[in-house]
């Protein structure tokens, strides 16, 4: 959860957009089964990130989320090791899969560490999420009843993951911009319509860049 109402809505809109695109990607005809499954996992990630933004998301059971994203982390790591081709618009399929694996690890971390990150939030004196620090055990993992604030190692890991996700989004965004620009320049030079495949690759890269920067921003906002 994040304390800022404005940031909550910005992240909600961002992840709603990525969820729509991932749903379109997952149902696209002719897609490899591995890419279809990867798009479906990103759809689940986008929807659960929306839930994490708001207090009611604390009631979503933690264990299924941990199992799901631990499995997707292993899945993407295996795709990277095996050098499986990737349909997304990224320079290196192996790096793309590795980045997705890190995003899945970050999801596991957020589900597991959110109660610790929320420690002391109810004493911060403001914010629309202050009442949710005492989350039910059926949702995110239960936090210790008495603690002055998040432990330093939890803050450090969250800061490193958040910074990595924000910075690594630059590669996705630059890929999206370069692909779209090249596609438009080629269309202008030849007088032919823009290549639909290149357009899709640009949107894919933009989607994953948005997901990365949104997850990173949320982690950093919870510090």
UniProtKB/TrEMBL annotation:
Keywords assigned by UniProt, alphabetized: Membrane, Transmembrane, Transmembrane helix
Membrane-spanning intervals of the chain: 6-24, 36-54, 66-86, 98-118, 154-173
InterPro entries in UniProt: DUF5134 (IPR033458)
Record has Membrane as a keyword: yes
Lineage: superkingdom: Bacteria
Residues of the signal peptide: none
Record-given protein name: DUF5134 domain-containing protein
Species of provenance: Saccharopolyspora gregorii
The organism's taxonomic lineage, starting at the top: Bacteria, Bacillati, Actinomycetota, Actinomycetes, Pseudonocardiales
């Amino acid at each position: 959860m994040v304390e800022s109402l404005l940031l909550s809505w910005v992240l909600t809109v961002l992840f709603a957009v990525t969820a729509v695109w991932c749903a379109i990607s997952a149902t696209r005809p002719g897609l490899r089964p591995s890419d279809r499954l990867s798009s479906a996992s990103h759809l689940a990630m986008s929807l659960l990130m929306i839930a994490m933004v708001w207090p009611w998301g604390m009631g979503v059971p933690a264990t299924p989320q941990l199992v799901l994203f631990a499995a997707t982390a292993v899945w993407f790591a295996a795709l990277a090791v095996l050098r499986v081709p990737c349909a997304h618009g990224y320079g290196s399929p192996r790096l793309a899969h590795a980045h997705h694996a890190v995003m899945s690890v970050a999801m596991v971390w957020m589900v597991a560490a959110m109660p610790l990150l929320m420690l002391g939030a109810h004493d911060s004196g403001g914010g629309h999420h202050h009442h949710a620090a005492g989350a039910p055990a059926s949702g995110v993992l239960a936090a210790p009843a008495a603690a002055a604030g998040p432990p330093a190692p939890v803050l450090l890991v969250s800061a490193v993951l958040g910074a990595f996700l924000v910075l690594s989004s630059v590669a996705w965004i630059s890929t999206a911009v370069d692909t779209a620009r090249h596609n438009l320049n080629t269309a202008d030079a030849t007088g032919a319509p823009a290549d639909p495949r290149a357009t899709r690759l640009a949107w894919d890269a933009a989607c994953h860049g948005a997901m990365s920067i949104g997850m990173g921003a949320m982690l950093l906002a919870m510090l």
